[in-house]
Design goal:
This protein is of the alpha/beta class. It folds into two domains: 96 residues, Elongation Factor Tu (Ef-tu), domain 3; 177 residues, Nucleotide-binding domain of ferredoxin-NADP reductase (FNR) module (Rossmann fold). It has seven helices and 18 strands. The strands form four sheets. The chain has a seven-stranded mixed beta sheet with strand order 13-12-9-8-14-15-18, sandwiched between helices. Strands 2-3-6-5-4-7 form a six-stranded antiparallel β-barrel. Strands 10-11 form a two-stranded antiparallel ribbon. Strand 4 and strand 5 form a beta hairpin. Helix 5 runs parallel beside helix 7. The protein is globular and about 55 Å long. The two termini are 35 Å apart.
Length: 298
Amino acid sequence: MTDPGTAGRGTRGTIFLESARVLAQQAHAAGQFVIRLEAPQCAAHAQPGSFAHITCDPALRRPLSIMHADAGSGAVEILYKVVGAGLEALSRRKPGDEVSLLGPIGRGFTAHPERPLALLIGGGVGIPPMVFLAERLAARTDAHWKPLVLMGSEIPFPFRPRPSRIVVDGIPAGAIACLPPLDEAGIASRLASRSGFAGCFDGFVTELADAWLARLQPAELERVEIFSCGPTPMLRATASLARRYAVPCQASLEEFMACGVGGCAGCTVLVHTPQGDAMKRVCVDGPVFDALSVAGLE
C-alpha cells in the first residue's frame, strides 16, 4: 500500500493517493451535496463505476461514487448524501480546503458495442455512476450508442428536474421529467418516484424500466444491455427484469467498506463463477459484477 504521506504515487498501478483541493461544494435538498475536487490522477484514470475513498474526519474514510471526471481540468465531482458524522464533516468543507483522496478504486462498467441500446438504472446514491456512464457512452464512436437513463428517488432529486425535450418511445404518458444536463447533451433520461414529484413516473424506477422493455421487439432486445446501481432491492428487481427479457445486466453493488483497497476483505459477496462459487471483494473485484451471477440478486 502507498505510504500515506506520499501523494500521487500509484497503488497497484491504478489507485492513487492525492491531497485533493476542494473547488466547490453545492448543497441540495434532503442533505445531498455535490463536491468538486481537484484530483488530477483520479480524474485521469477514473472510469464509470469506480469510486474514491475520501477522508471525511480524522478517523475514517468513506467510499463515494464518482459522478464526473475531467482529465483536462483534473477535477472529479462526487454526489453524496449526509449519513452520519463523517459525511456531515465533509459537507462543511469549503473551497480551498484539502481532503485525502484514494482513487479511483474498483472495476467499472464494461459496455459492449454489439449492445448499444444501453439501459441505465440508478436509484438514490446509485445515480452518480449512471450519469458518468451515460456521458462516456455518448462520447464513444465505436457504435451508435443510445443510452437511456432512468433514475429513481423517494427524496427530492439533487438537481432541478424539468420536462424533457427528447421523445422516448415506450415511456408512459406523463413521465416527462428529466435530468437537465443529460437532456441538453442529447441523452434521454426519465425520473421515477413514489413521492408525487411533478413529471415523474409514479412508481419504482424498475417498473418504469419494465414498461420501456416491454415495448421492444425481439431484435431490439438483442441490442440491449442493462447497467444498474442502487440499493439491493432495486438491484434485485433489475436482475429479475434482465432474466425475464433475456438481456445482460451489470450491477454496481453497495457494501460497507473499511480499507477500500482489498486488504481487509470486509466487503465480500458470494458470486457464482464458471469455476464455482467464490467470495469476491466489492471494493477491488467490483463494485461492478454480472448481476445474474451475484448471490442475493437471484
